[in-house]
Design a protein that fits this description.
alpha+beta, NADH Oxidase, four-stranded antiparallel beta sheet, single chain
Length: 196
């Protein structure tokens, strides 16, 4: 029951206190990520994490997102501006990559297996992120899962000098400087059915 309460309580935090998150706390958060479930193949772990605590890198990623608003068009503009502000406020970032190990391994098979592998990679990495944001919440650390940085994949990858990885998401991390608001959920009667 405690985990359900934590899930219901957790909110996205976009404003953070001017206080660094200790490395041992960041390690606990990332450790939760690596214990996400393996899908499709035993021991399959498609994620790679890059923890950024240096202010110049955080500021540069925020600038990359803001600069992209000049070319992305109206639809992505607001999303990127909000994401840039969240990154700028963060004390640390966890950049999440997909190493695509399973889809590369299955590329010699039929296209349906490749599609399945890609879906499994997305699902496994998403589960690892959920582990991290819940662990952060349990430690009193705010987080925000950002996928808009994918629009700036090349620029971010060039900045952090990684190779052969696909940008999946960025987690903004810090001590909360706001009270998050949880959006309402539809009742179970509208979202769940049972075969009896």
């Amino acid at each position: 029951m405690k985990i359900l309460n934590l899930i219901k309580k957790r909110t996205s935090i976009r404003k953070y206190a001017l206080k660094a998150v200790p490395i041992n706390i960041l390690e606990q958060i990332v450790c939760a990520g690596i214990w996400g479930p393996s899908l499709l193949a035993p021991g399959f772990q498609p994620w790679k994490f890059l923890v950024i605590t240096k202010r110049p890198y955080i500021d540069r990623i925020a600038s990359i997102l803001l600069n992209k608003t000049k070319t992305i068009g109206a639809a992505g503009n607001a999303i990127l501006k909000t994401s840039a502000a969240t990154v700028k406020n963060a004390r640390s970032l966890i950049v999440v990559f997909n190493e695509r190990s399973l889809s590369k391994k299955l590329k010699r098979f039929d296209s349906k297996f490749i599609r399945l592998a890609k879906t499994a990679e997305i699902a496994a990495i998403s589960a690892s992120i959920q582990n991290m944001i819940l662990t952060a919440e349990s430690l009193g650390i705010g987080s925000c899962w950002l996928d808009a940085p994918i629009f700036c994949e090349k620029e971010i990858i060039d900045l952090v000098h990684v190779k052969n990885l696909k940008l999946f998401a960025i987690l903004a991390i810090g001590y909360p400087a706001q009270i998050g608001k949880r959006s309402l959920r539809k009742p179970l009667s509208e979202t769940v059915s049972y075969l009896k």
